[in-house]
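Crash report, auto-generated. Payload:
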Amino acid sequence: MKKYIFNVVLLSISFLFTSCFEVVEEISLNDNGSGNISMTINLSRSKTKVSSIMLMDTINGYKVPKKREVEKHIQEIVTALKSIKGVSNVKYSTDFTDFIFNVSCDFANVDVLNKVILHFTTRNQANAVTNSKQFSYNKNTKTFVRTYKYNLAREMQKISKKDRAVLRDASITTIYRFQSPIAMSKNKVARISKNKKAIMLSVSVKEMINHKTNIKNTIQLKK
Amino acid sequence: MKKILLVVILFLSFNGIAQNLENKIPKSAKAVVVANGDRIFELLPMSVLDNSDLVRKILKAKKINTLKDLGIDFEQKAYYFYQVLDKKQYHNFMIKLSDKSKFEAQLSPYQKKKITTVNGNSFLFNSEFTTAWNDELLVISIRVKPRSNYSNRYIFDRSEVTEVVADEAIDEVEIEEVEIEEVAEPVQEVEETIVESIQPEEVVEVEEVESEEKIIARKKRREAASAKRAAERAKIQLENSKYVMALLRGTASNSITNNSSYTSGKENKSSAYVWVANYGEIIDDITKLTQSPYSIYSRMNMSYKKMVGIKDVKANLFFDKDEVRVSSVFNLTDEKAAQAKKMYNTKLSRKFYQYFDQKNVLAYLSSSINMEETLKIYPEMIKQIYGSVLPKYNEEIDVASDLISILLDEEAIGKLITGDALFVLNGIEKQEISYTTYKYDENYKRSKVTKTKDETLPVFTVMLGSENKKFVDKLLRLSAKHKFADVSNNIFTLNKKMTKSPIDLYFTIQDDIVFLTNSKGQMHKIVAKSIDSDLGKHKRFFKKNMATFYVNSEKIIAQLPKNELGMKIGELTGLVEDNIKETYITFSKVKGTKMYSEYVTKTADTSENSLRLIFSLIESLAAKR
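Recovered output after restart:
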């Protein structure tokens, strides 16, 4: 009972304020189209709140997953990734102190990468979904394209204001590394590294909802 | 045949109906709510309401200029009462009318067509709703069936429709001219739903094989179902009309005014009065209404009436100059009162006082029970609760409760946990929290970095009475031995990594109190006994009550960082801060067979009275939304 009262007090006060977390998508792409992807979700900035939520059974009508359920879900993703032809070196890490979760793997080509990325966005099996391609790479023209067809603003309208507030300070960072130098990038917010072989794009979810920025990009590498 | 029986009944029923509303409330009512319109509108004049934005919107929608144009005499007493008759629950409202024609003008053209008028008394029937009125009063009666009856009807409608034709209620349908076309509609919906849920190819198959006989049979079933529903409605309508007429005929001799429990609780200056004949019975009725007949509650035939042990409850609502107050009295059964006296007639140990500084208290929950007595009574309570629920297992329950009594050393437990508890919210503070993020070099190579940020967190202290310092000390030292806590200067600090605690926690025991807080500074003050003891009015709460819940909303809102709340929430909380000061609810010790509770919300002293202030506040909040 005391634990419950404590949680209620802690949450009722902390939930008046926004929470924040960051998603980091890192891809190292070789000239032949193979590469490595690393997806990180970092909730460390909101760890007090997340720790408190983890002690509850439900929050805002949602069931709060237990630690073992989170681990099980990540294990399921890892198992699914391992079953994809062209995926190798699958690794993962979980940190329930800072609430940082990472999954990475090597992919044989960009088609495989598209299957991999689906596991971070939906629960469907990657093999079953082939239509929605998030990435494309043309070896001949050396053009790498990151698309983003999800209408975040429309989806946000479907959830309550309270739930939307949780995403207010969230951010998404994409870092793409190449073997060849970058000649041009279409997304004006993206910044090219000093050695010209990496590009970083950091956007807030709020800006994406408001259509101010996007993670879409077309990157032209030097031939 | 058209309405003949109903009209005859109505005609015979009206012989000089007295118009004193309270006299019409039956003595057997289980609950009554009185809204003292005279008092309410003295505090909040009709002219103020008429000119408010909220009411103006309503008036505009209804195309009238003032609330008086609704034809209701708001400045008189209005009543709600609840009665159970022949296992049917009735919720009734009785209101004085000032102008019948104005009231009728608010009815829709459809409703106007449906009015049955006899001897100047008008009736409107709508399923379980019955509305009756005359020149002086309006009665709305709502009949609610327990859930089990609905479930039965649901099953019956779908599987046994062919038997309906023989139902005796059909005769009453003819008398009351129930319109069949209205009830045919839901059947159509059912048909559509079924068709939609069938896969397209299956539909084709069904259409191909369906014979004319089947179509006719289906049509007959549909008609029979419609007739059944119409018959049920007619039956309900007739029963309801009889019930309402009995209410209207009610006289003082058989009214609630002869119930001393009801009359003795009424206070002259209250704006509203609530009376419940038997609290447990009401809970039982609500549970019957909401619980499935197959639930554990229904199957075990559990009775809150027996478990709760509260007889009548009376509460008065007051809107004073700068406070809203609800004074309640709970009348316990003799048996429960005797138990409650042993359990609750104790007060918070004075040792707690030295750690209470009202200047640093935003909210608190205090409670005091006699743990030793509670543990002695507990087995008896188990017998009372489960013995009535599971009469077959009376002997087993008897043995189990005795076993509990044998196993528990009430005195020893009572020393370890005295039953005194105080949970205090001391403040809302910004605390520096470290977190992990990433930094990127010039080529966007990622590396982990630790940064800090300020997080708004509540500072709280929990105090629990314990007279067995030796044992608690051993427990704390054991936790230190196993690395669940670090110990320094008799302060135990929870090991966050080991315990997965999201925040820092410190605990200690001194002066027969176990302390737990998330503030290091607060814990140092406790150990150094440097808290400036200042109880103010709270001393009275601690001494007189077995439990108090107190919230100082003004202080809480003042400490919230409004810039982090967003402009809108910041504005709303600002409004509340300016108008609502503090709220508390107390539960007294048991005196005789009575337990008293007081709910108070202190408001700003800036308006004529608290009702006007709250109304203005609601208006302002609505405008800001």
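Post-recovery validation: The first helix of chain B runs from residue 4 to 13.
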